[in-house]
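Thread: Modeling a multi-component assembly for a lab meeting

Hi all, long-time lurker, first post. My supervisor asked me to bring a structural picture of a complex we are working on to next week's group meeting, and I have zero experience with this. I have the sequence lines for every component (381 residues in total). Could someone generate the structure of the whole assembly? Inputs are pasted exactly as I received them:
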Amino acid sequence: MKCLDIEQIYHYLEGEVSSSQAERIEHHLSFCMKCSQLVRERKILLGGIKEIPKFTPPSDFVEKVMFELFPSKITLLKLIITFFAGSLTFSLILLGFLRLTGQSVSSLLINLNHSLWQTIKNGAIIFIKIFKLFSIAIGIIQHILAYLLKMIKSFTSVVGTEVQVAAIMGFIVLTILFVSFLTYFPIKKFFTGR
Amino acid sequence: MKLDDKELVAQTLKGREEAFEMIIKRYQTPIINFIGRMVGEYQQAVDLSQEVFIKAYSSLSLFDPKYKFSNWLFKIASNLCIDFWRKKKIFTFSMDQSISSENNLYPQISDAKPSVIEQYEKKQLIQKLEKVIDKLPPSLRELFVLRHINDLSYQEIAQIKEIPVGTVKNKVFRAKERIKFLLEEEK
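Re: Modeling a multi-component assembly
Sure thing. I ran the full set together rather than chain by chain. Output:
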């Protein structure tokens, strides 16, 4: 038998040859150093290829595809599961709480009612305080605006109409640039996720 | 009882969605691995694989039960990869392209000098292999991946790509020798 060609070596290593052919090849390899070296190298290569790590699909892959294909049904199923899981958790927590405190359901409801009124009373006080702070802030802003108007009035009495128009335009452009700069990155992140 | 692919397809066509869910579970790993090695990016591979299953579902009524379902699915995946490359304007290929016209892509194989492949440690060899697979021309990479990553037979690949078995064998052989050459170049 003459020396093996490379394609034949691969077929031999991958079991793609008949048993009689394999026997002939093995006999040849028993005395041909050159072919043995070629076989050894390809064996290493194929061994390495076999061990190339596999990609693992993301854990939610099936769910995502199913959601794409049947969106409404998946949502309904999820809603039902969420509702039952939520109800069960709430019931368990309530039961545990009643057992621990030794209260009955009616006494718990009376206590809750009392706490609710207390919360509303406290909330109302906080609300009035916030309202007061808010009106003070409005007063300060009013003063600042009045001062700004005075400044603009004295400015317009000194400079001509063209300069006034240019100043207003400049102010508008600067405001747009400032707002765009502030909102560009959050908007970009919102749409691209980066 | 494990249902075969054709049975699952028939049940899906009857409106049993969970049958298609079983198909996805069965083929998600092979499809992601095929596309992953083709496009070289994991997230892109996941997105394209989702598209494969969506496309398969929408054209399930066109599936001919005479053929193997997995071959049909890989065919969809292969076409999506080609579309992806076209959109990205990456060099695409035709399977009808003659082997001789590809000769300029490959070095002349010479085995006169001893190979450096034996000098690699196993871990290092695997890392290098992952790298050089990305460097294979798409026409060879696809057949190589189907054969050696997805473990499909030459006959199955020939059916997926609709080319003769001999051509598949020859191209896979060329891919492996190209990989060997690239590994030696990297050393």
